[in-house]
Amino acid sequence: MHTTSCDRKHDVYDASCPCRQVLDLLANKWSALALGALEDGPRRFGALRDRLDGVSPKVLTATLRRLEDQGLIDRTVFPSVPLHVEYSLTALGKDACAPLAALRAWVVDNIERFPTAAVSAGDGR
Amino acid sequence: MHTTSCDRKHDVYDASCPCRQVLDLLANKWSALALGALEDGPRRFGALRDRLDGVSPKVLTATLRRLEDQGLIDRTVFPSVPLHVEYSLTALGKDACAPLAALRAWVVDNIERFPTAAVSAGDGR
DNA sequence: CGATCGTAGTACCCAAAGGGAACTAAGAGC
DNA sequence: GCTCTTAGTTCCCTTTGGGTACTACGATCG
């Protein structure tokens, strides 16, 4: 387990620790969904916009740029005719998918226990 | 284990699914930190404010209320002299802690791989 | 030759959330 | 009656989120 030379300052509870920024990036609805959407392989901008139901192009762009800046995804431009941009997970992004997938799965698995979902829980429609 | 009658509509990728709202609640910096801070047992407002370095009382209140509304935490008021309010995890909240703890742990464990942390990685200061 | 299409965004504008500092309430103790 | 503590609330400003419309580009259609 890649024991780094110094672990003392790595604490998500410390506002000045870089961990906090990374947590803020990953603990985000759109980030969690976008990374999950790339788990099956590279996807194009339009495909991501469709998959991430309800996301606006502006927010999707911002989310993808942030993930790219932090090295979680790669952005590949194919200068073909109607322009083609593919987003794919980096090794780091793939690794980050594990805890995020667990979180998404937990939500789906336990949704019936939430008051928000209670209405639809008995809804056989 | 809680096999519900119908799982088909539960999808975090569907904007209209209650899952999305729950994901939005949990996939949030302050929620993830607040629930984690309560893992060791009940804590008071002030203790949480201290632990969640950088949080403003307003945002902490809003976060706690949201978590309370969704049944993840309990708020107990002790009408003692300088007023005493204790926040604690519900069974649901305890369960939600597992994936969130995994996410926090992953961040701390992999922080050196992020460009954001690269500066401080070799920084012995 | 101009109009239209598809893709991946950007620009503009508004609403909501985040965030800080100061203030409130209520009673104990000085 | 002043101060201390605790748990917020209120005000205001900045940041972020979000929707809609628009752009650029060449290909293809009419």
Gap from first CA to last CA of chain A: 49 Å
**Unreliable stretches of chain A, pLDDT < 50, 5 or more residues?**
1-7, 120-125
Q: Quaternary status of these chains?
A: homodimer
Averaged pLDDT of chain A: 87
Describe this structure in words.
The structure is a homodimer of 125-residue chains. The first copy, chain A, has 125 residues and is mainly α. Chain A has a single domain, classed as Arc Repressor Mutant, subunit A. Helices cover 52% and strands 11% of the residues of chain A. The first copy, chain A, has six helices and three strands; from the N terminus they run H-H-E-H-H-E-E-H-H. In chain A, strands 1-3-2 form a three-stranded antiparallel β-sheet. In chain A, strand 2 and strand 3 form a beta hairpin. In chain A, helix 2 crosses helix 5. The N terminus and C terminus of chain A are likely disordered. Chain B binds a DNA duplex (30 and 30 nucleotides) through helix 3 and helix 4.
Keywords:
125 residues; 3 strands; 52% helix; mainly alpha; globular; disordered N terminus; homodimer; 3-stranded antiparallel sheet; DNA-binding; Arc Repressor Mutant, subunit A; disordered C terminus; 6 helices
Describe this structure in a few short sentences.
The structure is a homodimer of 125-residue chains. Chain A is mainly alpha-helical and 125 residues long. Chain A has helices at 18-26, 29-37, 45-51, 57-69, 91-110, 115-121, and strands at residues 43-44, 73-78, 84-89.
